[in-house]
Specification:
single chain; alpha+beta; Nucleotidyltransferase, domain 5; 2 domains; 4-stranded mixed β-sheet; 8 helices; 4 strands; elongated
Length: 190
């Protein structure tokens, strides 16, 4: 524990912005003028400064003991006192509109009163089996099932197999197809 504390102290005194107080003051002034660490670091590169720091060094200083004492975090665009993990996963926007939820199906389809409405599902297998997968189409009233083997899970081959499988059925037997909220079934939501 003593060795760890000694190492931490040594590392904190060897940090660039602590060793070079003029550079530190320049960075702090830019931060207080509303610059982001990215802008400061890139501007130093653009100007060809002899002493320069990257954005990560600036962020480390802001969230260090010295930076927190000066409350430099307040000058960041997102006034966050604690730093989020560097590679924290950001929540991604949904690839599908909320309007196409399965909950918005008509009652006749939802309660299985009308023939001709299908549910599609893509079943993937273990990676060692290769790219091959299976699409299942189940008619909701009769539970009639069609299983289609696909060469891969891309949209175009999957959709071509589905179209080929149901194109000979009468119009009454192919009113709608509801697929999973996955990329392979994205054209089904048109």
């Amino acid at each position: 524990m003593a060795a760890h504390q000694l190492t931490q102290r040594r590392r904190s005194t060897q940090r660039t912005l602590i060793r070079y107080p003029e550079l530190c003051q320049l960075v702090v002034n830019h931060l207080k003028d509303g610059w982001t660490p990215e802008q400061i670091g890139n501007r130093m590169v653009f100007d060809g400064a002899k002493q320069r720091v990257c954005q990560e060094t600036i962020y480390r200083y802001i969230y260090s003991k010295e930076g927190l004492a000066q409350e430099l975090w307040w000058y960041l665009p997102v006034h966050r006192k604690n730093r989020t993990p560097r590679r924290a996963r950001k929540r991604q926007k949904s690839k599908f509109d909320r309007d196409v939820s399965i909950l918005f199906r008509p009652d006749d389809v939802a309660h299985r009163r009308e023939f001709g409405h299908w549910e599609g599902d893509l079943m993937l297998f273990e990676q060692k089996r290769g790219q091959t997968n299976v699409t299942s189409l189940v008619e909701r009233v009769s539970r009639f099932t069609v299983i289609l083997k696909n060469p891969n899970k891309r949209t175009k081959p999957v959709m071509q197999k589905i179209i080929k499988a149901i194109k000979d059925l009468p119009h009454v037997a192919r009113r709608s197809i509801t697929g999973q909220n996955r990329r392979e079934f994205s054209p089904l939501y048109i």
